[in-house]
Amino acid sequence: MTHDDLLGIHDIKGAVAGYLAGDFNSHHGRPPKAEYIDDFDSQRGKTLYVGSRESGKLLRVYEKGKQLGSPDSPWVRWELELHNKDRVIPHEVLVTPGAYLATAYPCLAWISDTQCRIRTLSTTACINLDSLLKHCRGSYGKLIWTLWKVLEYPPELIVSKLAMEGVPPRLYLPVVGGGDV
Fold first, then answer.
1. Where in the sequence is the domain holding 52, given as residue range(s)?
2. pLDDT at 162 (0 to 100)
3. What is the pLDDT of residues 90-99, one digit of tens each?
4. How many angstroms separate the CA atoms of 48 and 71, rounded?
């Protein structure tokens, strides 16, 4: 998804200043990673990357006119690369990309009055049952064995003494919710 600012109203300097001011922070977790590539005024164009491919969301802000060989061009391109990691990308993104780009980061709301969010899947599904059982066995396996084999507690009694109502947060299955694009 791209937005071309042909007049350079929202330029690369403003994007960098916005990043440093925290304007890209979603307030749902850590601030996104960023990388700035400076052309040292060679007129080939500067680029700011916000996010990462690993997270499935990467924004590039770059001086498109300069990239194409026009050193005086104010043209800035805002380009979002999305991957379906922890998100289902709807087909409507192809029809109204600006509405989705405008919600990628809080400071992009200026791109479109119409805004549509792509919900991300909960990241708490990363820990599975096998992992939790492994850690439980390492921490409490000998206690459970002692209660069962040495003290001869019936398994139902052991479970009733150790069980606590609820599902471990890390075991929740992925559901739509959590963060946004």
1. 2-121
2. 93
3. 888 899 999 9
4. 18
Examine the fold and report which residue of 80, 103, 121 is the final residue of a domain before the chain moves on. Answer: 121
Task: State how many domains the chain has.
Answer: 2
> Of all helices (H) and strands (E), which one includes residue 49?
strand 47-52
Instruction: Please tell me whether the overall predicted TM-score, pTM, comes out greater than 0.70 for this model.
Output: no
What are the structure tokens assigned to 15, written together? 């994007």
Cα–Cα distance for residue pair 40/46, rounded to 1 Å: 8
Q: Most distant CA pair in the chain: distance in Å?
A: 83
Distance between CA 59 and CA 18 in Å, rounded?
13
Tell me, yes or no, whether 150 and 102 share the same domain. no
If we measure between CA atoms, which residue out of 57, 48, 60 comes closest to residue 118? 57
Answer whether 45's CB lies under 8 Å from 39's CB.
yes
